[in-house]
Amino acid sequence: MFKYNKSRTTGSTSWIIQRITGIVLVVVMIGHYILMHYMPENGHTYDAVLARMQSNWYRVLDLTFIVLGMYHGLNGVWGIFRDYKMKPWQSITVFSVILILGIAFTLWGIKTILDIPYINSTSTTFLVK
Predict the structure, then answer these.
(1) Regarding predicted confidence, which is higher, 88 or 127?
(2) What CA–CA distance (Å, rounded) separates 107 from 70?
């Protein structure tokens, strides 16, 4: 007989969030493509990236890209593993590894973006935090 599973156990919430993050990532990816590859005068050098990162808009855009990209990718990996009939301890282990790695790499990416120095507009020296 068919047993009704509440939405908590079916993965419907992660399915919806996966679709939303996918749509947002496509929009951000198109913006990234136009900025970095269609308009090469923006530059790909360290100085060009440093100049671009002086705008909080680009920092927020990159942070959004990191967080949504990591969620989207790791949720997809977890979705693949969920398709297999694993024992409960295997499921918990795989999910824990994905979660720990996801948090670690997301924090590493956030730290990298936030550690990019702001340049003092009156001179060329970097501000010391």
Answers:
(1) 88
(2) 10
Question: Residue 112: phi, psi to the nearest 5?
Answer: -60, -45
Name the residue ranges covered by the structural domains of the chain: 14-114
Q: What angle do CA 36, 56, 100 make, to 5 degrees?
A: 85
Number of CB atoms found within 10 A of residue 21's CB: 19
The amino acid that residue 103 corresponds to is: I
pTM above 0.85, yes or no: no
* Alpha-carbon span 26 to 118, nearest angstrom: 29
74-102 confidence digits (pLDDT tens): 999 998 998 888 899 999 999 999 999 99
To the question of domain 14-114 being in CATH 3.40.50.150, the answer is no
